[in-house]
Every structure is written in C-alpha cells, then in structure tokens.
Amino acid sequence: MDSLSVANLIGVKNLNINDIKLIFKTADNFKEVINRPIKKVPSLRDITIANLFFENSTRTKLSFELAEKRLSADIINFSASQSSLKKGESLIDTINNILSMKVDMIVIRHPNAGVPEFISSKVDATIINAGDGAHEHPTQALLDSYSIREALGEIRNKNILIVGDIIHSRVALSNIFALKMQGANVKLCGPNSLMPKYINKLGVEVINNFDDALQWCDVVNMLRIQNERMNKSFFPSLREYVSLYGLNNERLSKLDRDIIIMHPGPINRGVELTSEIADSKNSIILDQVENGVAIRMAVIYLLAKQKFNR
After folding, report:
1. pLDDT tens, 67-87?
2. Are residues 21 and 118 in the same domain?
3. What's the pTM value of the predicted model, to 2 decimals?
C-alpha cells in the first residue's frame, strides 16, 4: 500500500495502522534527505501551501515551514493577529480569499476544536490539522510514536506513560489514539482535576501516584501545564504540583532501569521536569524536534501525491 486512506489529516483517529506504517516508512526516507549536505528535494515544486496559525506557535510552525521548504513547495504564512479577522471578517471568508490565490494545501492551527474538519467540508484544498483546541494534534503524536520506535525498536507492548495536564492537551488525545493503534500499553498520570471525565472510554488507566507509574513505564511523556487554557485553578499550588508530578533526578534514581524521557514542548523547566532531566542522555526531546520535520515532510508529501498524482 503506497497511499493514505484519508484525503486530509484531521486527526489520528481517522487513520489506520497501515497509514501510520506508510508515514513512518516515508519519514525514514526523508530523514536521510534532511541529513544530507543538500537537504531539498523537488517533490512539491509548483504546489502552494498556506500555513494558517490562529494560535501562537514556534516549534510546530517552524517545523511545518521547514518541511515544506525541504519539499520545494511555495509557502504563504498567515498570522491571525495581522489579518482582516480583526476587522470582523469570518473564518470561511478568510479561507476562501486565501484559496482564491490558488493555494493547494492548508496547514491550520486554531484555538477551537473542530475547525480543521469544518474547513475540510467547505473547501477543496487539502487540510492538515496543526492543532485544534484541546482536540487533536496528529503530527505531534506521529512524531512522538516515530521517536519511540527509533529509541526502542518497536512500540507494540511497550509501556508508555503520559503525565500532566491531560484535560487541556490535544497532544495527549492524539498520542493515546496513535499508541493504542500500534499496540502500546498506555497509562496516564496527574491530578484527577486534570483528567477528562471521558478518559475511561479511551481504554487507558489513570495512576495518580507518579513514583508507582514511573516503575511501570518504558517511556514517560511529560506534558506542559497549559495555564493559557485555564480559567480557574486546577490544583492548590504550582509548588505542590511539582512535588507530586515533577520529574527530577531524585525520582529517577529510585528506578532500577533507564527509561526514555519525552516532552512535546515548550518545556517549563523546573515544573514538568528539571533542566538536568531535559538535557540528560535518556531524553529524546531534541530527537522529537528533528523527527518532526521528517514526519511532516512525509504527511505533506503523501497527501499531495494522493491529490496531485505526484
């Protein structure tokens, strides 16, 4: 199978295991490309991609831009803060105006869940979800799984722990879908106030004791506390949160084996994990960043190939 089962990448839940395998196989090839002296391929010459970011982003936006440039695509960057949306223009009018400039693909991040799916039903361009509210962030989950596979050789039957602010995290939800599809055992850890009510329906277990959870896992993915999405206090104090759920050398020293440490970024050093841990030999955080470019190249290439017979 050399084509995806979907025309747009809206969420991991829309993919199947063959899609994930194909994306990883394609990313393997692109990872070789981006480690060459000449890092570009002409695969998407004459394809125009618009990056529409209605929320602040550094890593994801740069990663998509770099992936598009490595594929030789033409790029339009759109910033909501400088757009006519501020003057009252509707989202769909903004999208249609951009499409009238003959844009072929749209990479979109939006603070409201469901916007990429809504747009995909209204326009003919290929849509890639770069994060919608607290819903999904499919390329982050794919690069996370790819990084685990690279570090451990396989994902099936591995024990993956996701820690922190689950209720506000699109990364957590996409990771749960992706990891379970690949046969991993997934558990969540954090205060009950940061766990969604529907979490049991996803077939994952919640462990409140972080030290017990660390004893169980092969990989720990530390999530950021998303203060910008909180309109009330979800735990008594940051100091208490750090004492219960912060990853440090003292906690790791109690383990009888090494575990892989991940973080989707941006890191709040001293909160989710200490600088020592973030920069340690067991951390694959920078590998996640590098793999993000290869994964996004693979997704963009495969969707373009499907639509434009590239």
Report:
1. 999 999 999 998 766 555 554
2. yes
3. 0.93
